[in-house]
Design brief:
This protein is of the alpha+beta class. The protein has 19 helices and 53 strands. Among the domains are: 102 residues, no CATH class; 245 residues, no CATH class; 44 residues, no CATH class; 257 residues, no CATH class. It is 18% helix and 26% strand.
Length: 959
C-alpha cells in the first residue's frame, strides 16, 4: 500500500526551490538507494512524490482542500517546511523529513525505515497446518526498520476458528514494522490428526507493504525471522531487501526457485499459487513423522544455522528429509496427505505440492532430469550415502503428473537391459542376486519366478501335457497341505489342489453310471454318478466290489468273497450320505464348485452330499435276500431263500427281517408307506400299532366303541354348550367286593340309588363364565375334531374351576375352595370324582366283570369287551409345561389317565390321578389297575375328565 494520499497540490509548488520538478511521472529518475527520500513535484498529477523502497510515493500539500486533520482518511500531506526539514502529517500524527545538503538544496531524505503508520487493522492465517481455535497471536510494535527494537507496546488476538484466521483492530503505529508470535495446536497434514502439543511461529512484517493489512504466519516467516534480523542489524540492509534475501535462501534449501513467488506473508498452504504449493511442500517435509518437540528442534537448528550465512550445513538432516520424502512418494503417503488437506475443507483445490517434494528428493539423490529421452531408464542415486542401497529409480511418463522419477520395482531394476530369453529360462537378478526371474514367451518378457516355480520348476504347455510331471506333492507353506496335498501345472502356473482334482482332472467327463476307477496319483477310488454328472469319491466297499452304489442300483444285494478268506459277505446298496470337498486352489485363491449339486453343497465348506452307500448286511439277511443284481421294491415281503419260514421286508430300498407284527398280520409296514389301517391295526411311521379313537371317522366311533351287547346308555345333556354325553349306571347294592372293610353292597344301600358316570370324556371348552379354562385346556394335536372323538384335556386347577395358581399350591387348605362332590367344570348336579368315587367304580367293575377288560371295548384294548360300558379309550394327554403328548408310543401297552379332585397330602404340586394300565406281554394280556399317587403326575398335566352324578350317603365313607 502507499504511504500517503494521492490528492493534488497547488501550482505554487513551482515557486519552491527545495524539491525537483518534472512534467510527468515518466520523467522521474529511478528510485534507488542513492536518492532514497528525495521529493519531486509532478506537474501533470499536481502531486509531490517521494522516493522510498524503490517506489515513488505521493504526498499532499497543505494548501490543497482543507480537511479536518483528525480525519484519518485524508492520508498524508506536507503540512510545513523549514530550512532543515519537511513536516508530513498523517491523520493526527506528524513527523519531519530532514533535508540534506549532500546533493543540492532541493533534495530531501525520507527515512523509509521509520514512517509513522495509521494501522487500519491486520488479519491473516496462522499455519503449520492451520492453527486451531483458541490459539494466541501476540503482536509486538517495533521502533523502526534499522534497529528492530521493540517499543514495549504489545497487543494480542485470538484465533477464532479452526482455519487459523486471526484479526487485529486499527491503531496508530510509531513505525510500519511489526513482529508477530503465534502459539497453539495445529492440524498435522501428515498424520491427519491435531498436534499433541503447541507450536510457536514468528513473523516480521512491514504493514505499509501489506495490501488490505493481510499478514500470514507460517514456516517461511518463522525460518526467515532470525536471518532477516541479522541482515538488518549486522549487514545494515533494509528490511524489504533482507526479507527478499532470506526468502530466496530458505526456498533454496529445498531446491525451489522462488523468484516469482509472493512475499512470505502472502503465502497460504491451502492457496492455489505456486508459492502456496511450495510452502505446503516445505511444511510437509519438515513435519515428516516428527512430533511437535522434534519439529521445534528442527526449526531452531535450521534458523540458527542459516542466521549468518544463509546456508543450512546439516547434511545428515537434509538426507533424512530426502529419504522420508522419497519413501512417502514410493509408498503412496503423498496421496494420503493430499486427502488429509482436502478433508480440512478450506480450499476447493489443493495446490500441486507433490512436484516440489519430488524435485527435492530427486535432486538430493543426484538423479538426472526425467524427460522423454530418459523414459524407462533405471539409475541409482548419485549421492555417496546411497552407494550401498539396492534401491533404483526409473523415469516414467505418469498420466496426470508428467515425467517423474519413482522407485523401481525389483523386476525393473534386476532385469534392466536384459535381452529376451528362451521360454522358461531362469536368471538371478542383477541387484538382488538372490532373486530369480523367468522368461515367459507367452507374456513376451521376464517376470519374477513364483515360489511354486522355485520348488517345482517352470510350468508350460509341455509340462501340463505330461501326466506324471504335471502333478506333484505339495511342499509349499503357502498352501494348506492337509486339504490340498498336491500342486498341478495348469495355464502356465502351479496351483494347489485336492487329491480329488489331481486324481480325476484327466478322467472322461462322461462314463457309465457306477463306473469305478482308481486315482491317477493316489489309491483313492472314484465312482461316476450320473445323478450328479461327475466323478465322486468312492468308498472302500465300492473299490472292493468294483461297482458303485448309485440311484440306479438302489436296493441291489451283492455277494462278495475276499481273496484272503473263504468267508461270504453280502452288501446292499442303501440310502446314506457322506461329504466330499470338490473345491480346489487356483494359485493361492480358493475356488468353489461352479454350482451346488442338488442344492446340497454348504456355502462354508463347499461340500456336496451323495445318497447311497454299500452296507454290509447281516449274514442271515444277506443270504436269504440275495438278489444277484435285482432291485427290491418298498413293501415287498417274501420268505427267505434259506430260512423259508421267516419273512423279509424291502424297506427304504433294502431288505430287513420282518417284525412280529408284520409276520402276524402278513402285511409289511415300511417307512415310505403312508398311513394304513388294517382292521384295528394301524401302520404309521414304519411301525404297526393298535388303532386309537383318533384313527377312526367321527361317524364310525359309536358303532365301534359303544356297541355293548345288552347295555343301553343313558344321556346327560349339558345345557351350557348343548352337548350330549352317554352315561352308564352301576347298582352298587348288588356287589360283593369289599372297600376298606366296607362292602360295596352296604355303600350302595346307603346311597339309595345307582352310581351314574359319564361314559365319555368331557368336552366343555368354557366361556366368559369360566375364565380359569382359558389357556389351560387342550385338544389332542390341538385339533378340535380330536376333542369330539376323545374329549378334552384339563389341568387339575382348570378341572376344579380354580385359578391356575392352585396347580402350585394346596387348595384344600383354603376353606370352601374344594369340598366333597366338588362340581368343578362338570354340569350342574355332577361333580369331579374323588378317590372314593374311583375306588367304588374300580372295585365294582372288577367284582362284576372279573377283569379290567370290562372297562373298554376290544378295539380300545386287546381282549377287552367293555362289558361295563364305562368305555375307556387310549386318548393320551399332555405333560405339564409341554405341548408334547404322553400317549403310548410302541406295542400294545396302554395307559389312560383321569383327573381326581384329591390332592396329595403335603405336596402342593401333585394330585391323585386315576389311571388304567394294560400290558400285552409274551404270554398274553396282563391286566393292571391302580390309583396313581406318584409325584410325576403333576397338577399341571392336562388329563381327561369324567363327571359323576351327585349322590347322597347316610354314612361318611369318604377317604
Amino acid at each position: 500500500m502507499t504511504a500517503c494520499g494521492d490528492t493534488s497540490v497547488s501550482d505554487d509548488i513551482n515557486d519552491r526551490n527545495d524539491m525537483g520538478v518534472v512534467a510527468s511521472a515518466e520523467e522521474l529518475p529511478p528510485c534507488t538507494a542513492e536518492n532514497e527520500g528525495e521529493p519531486f513535484f509532478v506537474k501533470s498529477e499536481k502531486l509531490v512524490r517521494v522516493c522510498s523502497d524503490a517506489k515513488w510515493f505521493a504526498i499532499k500539500n497543505e494548501d490543497t482542500e482543507k480537511k479536518d486533520s483528525s480525519n484519518s482518511e485524508q492520508g498524508c500531506y506536507v503540512s510545513d517546511k523549514t530550512a532543515d526539514s519537511l513536516w508530513v502529517t498523517c491523520g493526527s500524527y506528524s513527523f519531519s523529513v530532514p533535508t540534506s545538503g549532500a546533493n543540492n538544496s532541493s533534495s530531501v531524505v525520507l527515512d523509509s525505515e521509520k514512517i509513522a503508520t495509521s494501522l487500519e487493522g491486520v488479519s491473516g492465517f496462522t499455519q503449520k497446518g492451520p492453527f486451531l481455535m483458541g490459539s494466541e497471536v501476540n503482536v509486538i510494535e517495533l521502533k523502526d526498520g534499522r534497529t528492530l527494537d521493540q517499543t514495549g507496546d504489545n497487543f494480542e488476538a485470538k484465533i477464532q476458528s479452526d482455519d487459523g484466521q486471526f484479526k487485529l483492530n486499527a491503531r496508530m503505529m510509531m513505525s510500519q514494522y511489526l513482529e508477530l508470535h503465534a502459539k497453539g495446536y495445529y492440524r498435522n497434514e501428515v498424520s491427519g490428526k491435531n498436534s499433541n502439543a503447541q507450536l510457536t511461529l514468528y513473523a516480521l512484517t512491514d504493514v505499509m507493504m501489506r495490501s488490505g493489512g493481510v499478514v500470514n504466519i507460517n514456516l517461511l516467516t518463522h525460518l526467515e525471522y532470525h536471518r532477516v534480523v541479522y541482515l538488518v542489524k549486522k549487514k545494515k540492509m533494509k528490511v524489504a531487501a533482507a526479507k527478499d534475501t532470506a526468502e530466496r535462501e530458505i526456498f533454496n534449501l529445498l531446491h525451489i526457485d522462488s523468484k516469482d513467488f509472493f512475499s512470505s506473508e502472502d503465502l497460504n498452504i491451502v492457496g492455489s499459487s505456486e508459492g502456496d504449493a511450495a510452502l505446503l511442500a516445505f511444511s510437509i517435509m519438515f513435519q515428516g513423522d516428527r512430533d511437535v518437540s522434534q519439529l521445534s528442534e528442527l526449526l531452531t537448528n535450521v534458523s540458527t544455522d542459516m542466521e549468518k550465512d544463509g546456508k543450512w550445513d546439516n547434511a545428515k538432516m537434509r538426507d533424512s528429509i530426502a529419504d522420508w520424502a522419497e519413501n512417502a512418494d514410493a509408498t503412496g503417503r503423498l496421496e494420503t496427505i493430499r486427502a488429509n488437506v482436502e478433508d480440512w475443507g478450506l480450499s476447493s483445490m489443493v495446490p500441486n505440492f507433490e512436484k516440489y517434494i519430488r524435485s527435492f528428493w530427486t535432486k538430493e539423490y543426484g538423479l538426472p532430469t526425467c524427460d522423454k529421452d530418459n523414459v524407462d531408464k533405471v539409475v541409482a542415486a548419485g549421492a555417496e550415502r546411497l552407494v550401498e542401497s539396492k534401491n533404483r529409480f526409473v523415469c516414467v511418463d505418469s498420466a496426470g503428473v508428467g515425467y517423474m522419477w519413482r522407485r523401481a520395482t525389483n523386476l525393473e531394476k534386476d532385469t534392466y537391459g536384459w535381452p529376451a530369453g528362451t521360454d522358461g529360462q531362469i536368471k538371478s537378478g542383477d541387484i538382488n542376486t538372490s532373486a530369480k526371474y523367468v522368461y515367459d514367451s507367452v507374456m513376451g518378457h521376464w517376470r519374477e519366478m513364483t515360489e511354486l516355480e522355485g520348488i517345482y520348476g517352470f510350468c508350460n504347455e509341455d509340462v501340463e501335457a505330461d501326466s506324471a510331471a504335471s502333478v506333484k506333492p505339495n511342499k509349499s507353506d503357502k498352501i494348506e497341505n492337509e486339504y490340498y496335498p498336491y500342486v498341478v501345472c495348469t495355464n502356465r502356473h502351479w496351483e494347489g489342489c485336492s487329491a480329488y482334482y489331481a486324481d480325476t482332472r484327466k478322467y472322461p467327463s462322461e462314463a457309465s453310471d457306477g463306473s469305478v476307477r482308481r486315482g491317477d496319483y493316489t489309491t483313492n477310488t472314484y465312482v461316476f454318478d450320473t445323478n450328479y454328472g461327475f466323478w465322486r469319491v468312492g468308498w472302500s466297499e465300492e473299490r472292493d466290489l468294483g461297482q458303485g452304489c448309485t440311484a440306479s442300483n438302489h436296493g441291489q444285494v451283492v455277494h462278495f468273497t475276499p481273496d484272503y478268506t473263504d468267508a461270504d459277505f453280502y452288501y446292499s446298496c442303501r440310502p446314506d450320505s457322506f461329504l466330499v470337498d470338490y473345491g480346489f486352489f487356483k494359485g493361492y485363491e480358493y475356488y468353489k464348485p461352479e454350482q451346488n449339486v442338488n442344492g446340497l453343497a454348504s456355502d462354508d465348506e463347499h461340500w456336496v452330499q451323495t445318497q447311497f452307500r454299500w452296507h454290509e448286511d447281516n449274514y442271515e439277511v444277506g443270504e436269504n435276500t440275495f438278489t444277484d443284481g435285482a432291485l427290491c421294491n418298498d413293501g415287498d415281503m417274501m420268505p427267505g431263500h434259506i430260512i423259508t419260514g421267516s419273512k423279509f421286508v424291502c424297506d427304504g430300498g433294502f431288505w430287513r427281517a420282518a417284525t412280529v407284527e408284520e409276520e402276524t398280520f402278513g402285511q409289511a409296514c415300511v417307512t415310505s408307506q403312508p398311513f394304513m389301517m388294517v382292521g384295528s391295526m394301524v401302520c404309521s411311521n414304519g411301525k404297526w400299532r393298535k388303532a386309537t379313537v383318533y384313527d377312526y371317522d367321527l361317524d364310525d366311533i359309536p358303532g365301534i366303541f359303544f356297541n355293548v351287547s345288552g347295555l343301553s346308555f343313558g344321556e346327560l345333556h349339558d345345557s351350557r354348550d348343548g352337548r350330549n354325553y352317554r352315561t352308564v349306571s352301576f347298582d352298587l347294592s348288588s356287589a360283593e367286593n369289599d372297600v376298606y372293610g366296607v362292602g360295596l353292597k352296604t355303600i350302595g344301600d346307603d346311597m339309595g340309588e345307582p352310581m351314574v358316570w359319564m361314559a365319555e370324556n368331557l368336552n366343555f371348552a368354557g366361556g366368559s363364565d369360566y375364565p380359569y379354562l382359558d389357556g389351560h385346556t387342550k385338544c389332542y394335536n390341538n385339533d378340535s375334531l380330536s376333542c369330539k372323538k376323545g374329549g378334552r384335556f384339563y389341568t387339575w386347577a382348570a378341572a376344579m374351576n380354580l385359578d391356575d395358581k392352585w396347580n402350585y399350591g394346596l387348595a384344600r387348605d383354603k376353606d370352601g375352595l374344594v369340598g366333597k362332590q366338588h362340581q368343578g367344570i362338570c354340569p350342574e348336579g355332577w361333580h369331579i370324582p374323588d378317590r372314593f368315587d374311583w375306588f367304588l367304580l374300580f372295585n365294582f367293575i372288577l367284582s362284576e366283570y372279573g377283569a379290567i377288560g370290562g372297562f373298554s371295548s376290544g378295539v380300545g384294548y386287546p381282549g377287552a369287551d367293555n362289558g361295563s360300558g364305562f368305555s375307556v379309550f387310549d386318548v393320551g394327554g399332555y405333560w405339564s409345561g409341554n405341548t408334547g403328548l404322553f400317549e403310548r408310543q410302541t406295542g400294545f401297552d396302554v395307559e389312560v389317565f383321569f383327573v381326581s379332585s384329591n390332592e396329595l397330602a403335603k405336596d402342593k404340586m401333585n394330585a391323585v390321578n386315576f389311571y388304567i394300565e394294560q400290558v400285552y406281554g409274551d404270554v398274553g394280556l396282563e391286566d393292571k389297575a391302580r390309583i396313581n399317587t406318584t409325584v410325576e403326575f403333576k397338577k399341571g398335566n392336562a388329563l381327561s375328565v369324567r363327571c359323576v352324578k351327585n349322590y347322597t350317603l347316610d354314612v361318611d365313607y369318604w377317604i
